[in-house]
Design goal:
The chain is built from 20 helices and seven strands. With about 425 residues, the chain is of the alpha+beta class.
C-alpha cells in the first residue's frame, strides 16, 4: 500500500470546514456565549455568596480561577506575588478558588508541623526519579518514617562530624583559588567573581558530601568540564520536573534531546553508591566509617520497622540533596555578601568582630560552634539577609484534613489548600 498524505489533508480540511460552518451559525454562537456567561456568573455568585472562604479577604480573580498562582509558579515570580499579597491583604487571604495564603510565622509553623495538614498532589512532581523521596512523599506514615530515618543525620551533632570536609572543600578551596589568582597578578591585586565562586563552592561541598567524590569545581588547575557536565544535568532535572505538567507525549518529545544528560548523571550516582558499598565491605572491624551525607543515607534505618533505604531510594534522595542543597545555599551566601557590600559600615563591624575573636595569626579552624558563640553580629547579618531575601520564596502548599481547621478566626473546611507565603512572612 502506498501512503498518500493528500487523503489525510483533504479529510482534515473537510472536518475544519464543517466545524467552521457549525460555529458560524448564529444560534450556535448564541448558545455557546450563553453557556460561558452562565458558567462564569454561577462561579462568581458561588465565590461571593456561598463559598466557605467568602469572608476571607482576597482579590476577586483569585476566587474565580487558580490561574494567578499557577502563573506565578510557572514564571518564577512567587516572591513578587507573595510580597504584594501580604502587603495588600495581611495574614490570611484567598489566592485560589479553594485555597488561602497565610503569612503569620506562627500559623506557618503550625501548618507545616501538624498532621492536620497534608501534602497535596503537587508534590508528585518532585518525584525526580519516579519514586518518592523525603520531599515528595505525601502519606502521613511515609512522611513520619522518612523523618525518623533521616532526621538524626541532619542534627547539629552529626553534621559537625562533616566540618573538616566542609572546610576543606568550601573555604579551603576558595582560599586556594583566590591565592592562585593573586599569585598570577603582577601588582598583587585581582578581581574575583564572588557569585560564581560561592556557586562553585557549594556545589563542591554538596557533591563531596552526597557522592563521596571530588568534582574539583574550584581547583585552579581544573578545566571545569566535570562541573559543567553535572551542573547542566542538574539544571535539566529541575526543568524536567516542571515539564511533567505537560501532556505525557509532549513531555517526552520536549525532553528527549536532553534525556542522555539525566541518564549519564543517574549512572554516575549509582556508581558512587556502589563504590561506597565496596569501600565499606573492605573496611576491617573497628575501622572508622566516612562521615558524609552518602554514608548517612546508607546507614539510616527506621527505628520502628527496621527498614533501610534501597539503592533506588538512596539514588532518589541523593539527587534531591544535590538539587535542593546547592543553589539555595549558594544564593543565600551571595545575597549576604551583596548586602554587606551595599552597607559598608555593617561589613566593617562584622569584619572587626571576626578579627578580634579570631586573629589572622591564629591557625585554629573557626568551627560552627565557635562562630555561634563568638560572632553574634555576623550571625545577625546572615539572618537579616535571609529575611530580606528568602531564597526559597515559593508558596508551600498543604491540604486541610477532616474535620477542618481554623486560622485567624476563619474556618477552613476539609480539602482547602493552604499556601505558606514564605516571602510574606519574612
Amino acid at each position: 500500500m502506498v501512503f498518500d498524505s493528500s487523503h489525510i489533508l483533504t479529510a482534515c480540511r473537510a472536518i475544519c470546514d464543517s466545524l467552521g460552518g457549525f460555529f458560524r451559525d448564529p444560534a450556535v454562537l448564541w448558545i455557546l456565549i450563553t453557556v460561558a456567561v452562565g458558567a462564569a456568573g454561577f462561579r462568581a455568585v458561588y465565590a461571593l455568596c456561598f463559598s466557605p472562604l467568602r469572608r476571607i479577604p482576597g482579590p476577586l480573580l483569585a476566587r474565580l480561577t487558580s490561574m494567578r498562582i499557577e502563573m506565578a509558579g510557572l514564571t518564577g515570580t512567587f516572591a513578587a506575588y507573595g510580597k504584594k499579597g501580604a502587603e495588600q491583604y495581611g495574614d490570611i487571604y484567598v489566592c485560589h478558588p479553594s485555597g488561602v495564603c497565610i503569612t503569620d510565622p506562627a500559623d506557618i509553623r503550625q501548618v507545616l508541623s501538624s498532621s492536620l495538614f497534608l501534602k497535596g498532589p503537587y508534590y508528585s512532581l518532585l518525584r525526580i526519579t519516579g519514586i518518592d523521596n523525603a520531599i515528595s512523599v505525601t502519606h502521613p506514615e511515609g512522611a513520619s518514617r522518612s523523618r525518623r530515618m533521616l532526621g538524626p543525620f541532619f542534627s547539629t551533632s552529626y553534621i559537625s562530624r562533616m566540618e573538616p570536609l566542609i572546610a576543606e572543600y568550601g573555604m579551603g578551596a576558595i582560599t586556594r583559588r583566590w591565592d592562585a589568582l593573586l599569585g598570577g597578578s603582577s601588582d598583587g591585586t585581582t578581581t574575583v567573581n564572588y557569585g560564581l565562586t560561592f556557586s562553585l563552592c557549594t556545589f563542591n561541598v554538596i557533591s563531596r558530601l552526597v557522592y563521596g567524590q571530588d568534582i574539583a569545581a574550584l581547583d585552579p588547575s581544573s578545566s571545569g568540564e566535570s562541573f559543567r557536565w553535572v551542573h547542566q544535568s542538574t539544571n535539566y532535572i529541575s526543568i524536567r520536573t516542571l515539564l511533567q505538567l505537560l501532556p505525557r507525549l509532549l513531555f517526552r518529545l520536549l525532553t528527549w534531546p536532553w534525556e542522555h544528560l539525566y541518564r549519564r548523571f543517574s549512572d554516575h550516582v549509582h556508581e558512587s553508591i556502589d563504590a561506597r558499598k565496596q569501600l565499606l565491605a573492605s573496611l576491617g572491624a573497628g575501622s572508622e566509617r566516612p562521615a558524609d551525607l552518602l554514608q548517612a543515607l546508607l546507614d539510616c534505618e527506621d527505628p520502628k520497622s527496621r527498614v533501610r533505604l534501597t539503592s533506588e531510594q538512596i539514588h532518589a534522595e541523593s539527587l534531591l540533596l544535590l538539587l535542593g542543597g546547592t543553589d539555595p545555599t549558594a544564593f543565600s551566601l551571595i545575597w549576604a555578601m551583596h548586602l554587606l557590600m551595599l552597607y559598608p559600615e555593617c561589613r566593617r563591624r562584622a569584619t572587626r568582630e571576626v578579627r578580634s575573636n579570631f586573629p589572622p595569626s591564629d591557625e585554629t579552624e573557626i568551627t560552627y560552634a565557635a562562630a555561634r558563640s563568638a560572632l553574634p553580629y555576623l550571625e545577625a547579618c546572615i539572618l537579616e539577609s535571609m529575611r530580606l531575601v528568602p531564597v526559597p520564596s515559593v508558596m508551600i502548599p498543604r491540604v486541610v484534613r477532616s474535620p477542618g481547621a481554623t486560622i485567624k478566626g476563619h474556618y477552613l473546611p476539609p480539602g482547602t489548600h493552604v499556601f505558606a507565603n514564605i516571602y510574606g512572612s519574612h
